[in-house]
Amino acid sequence: MKRMSVDHPVALYMQQRINEYYESSHPEISVLLDERCIVLHLKNFIGPRMESIVEQQDDPDVFRTLRELMMEYTLQNFTRDMKEQFGIQIKDIYYDWEERDFSGMVVGLLEGDAFAETVETFPHQYEVHERTNEITYSVQRVPDRVYSFWMDDHLLIVVRDGLLIKLEKELLRQGEQELLRKAKRVLERKEFLYHSQIPEILGREIEAIYLDWQFDHDRSVLVYQFK
């Protein structure tokens, strides 16, 4: 695992894309990479003009949709470029925004699912998995599998496999992916942010959480960012 400096090729690649798309002259990009995943934490990457447009959206749904579209646009060639330019083979991309500002978290799980093969234990991991199961069950059902690992001292990654219930699968079959994503994000974000007790279990103060799904693989990634 390595925290990359601002002059690392991956960081420079992201800076170039952000400068091109959002006219941001001072984006802050923190990148972590190991055999399991790549994590990018993006700050200050929306220029003044785009920030003004986003802030004018009073409707939270419009606000979220606009940010989703912006991130999808930013990452449209990300997986391809990571493989062709840097030899990093990404299986799935997950991303989310912090509601209070314009920061974003991007997680790319690498091919081979090394996170599931690499056994990593840490204090209170069992309790973290138990609370993750309980919170997930309160919204849908107990996951088939839960994995967790620290990417650095402040970022805890939780991967859940096997989440979808029959109703959700039918919504997906009918093309309601974005509706399902929005509903799950509202429900699960609130539960994990305010009721999971995971920060208390770990004795840490939470900074933010980031949450996303890949419905095709019935998988979700949850990132706890601690102070």
Overview in brief:
The protein is of the alpha+beta class. Helix content is 42%, strand content 26%. A hairpin with a 3-residue loop joins strand 2 (28-33) and strand 3 (37-43).
What order do the helices and strands come in, and which of them pair?
Layout: E1 2-3, H1 9-22, E2 28-33, E3 37-43, H2 48-55, H3 60-74, H4 78-86, E4 90-97, E5 104-110, H5 114-117, H6 125-139, E6 145-150, E7 155-161, H7 166-173, H8 177-194, H9 198-202, E8 206-214, E9 219-226
Antiparallel strand pairs: 1-2, 2-3, 3-5, 4-5, 6-7, 7-9, 8-9
Helix pairs in contact: 6-8
Per DSSP, the total helix count is 9
Radius of gyration: 17 Å
Instruction: Please report the distance between the alpha carbons of the first and last residues.
Output: 20 Å
Q: How many domain units?
A: 2
Q: Provide the structure class.
A: alpha+beta
Q: Into which percent range does the helicity of residues fall? A: 40-55%
Shape: globular
The whole-number mean of residue pLDDT values reads 85
Strand order of the largest sheet: 1-2-3-5-4
Low-confidence stretches: none
Question: Any overview of this molecule?
Answer:
This protein has two domains: about 1-110; about 120-225. About 40% of the residues lie in helices and about 25% in strands. It is globular, with a radius of gyration of 17 Å. α6 (about 125-140) packs across α8. β2 and β3 (about 35-45) form a beta hairpin. The chain has helices spanning about 10-20, 50-55, 60-75, 80-85, 115, 125-140, 165-175, 175-195, 200; strands at about 1-5, 30-35, 35-45, 90-95, 105-110, 145-150, 155-160, 205-215, 220-225. Strands 1-2-3-5-4 form a five-stranded antiparallel sheet, covered by helices on one side.
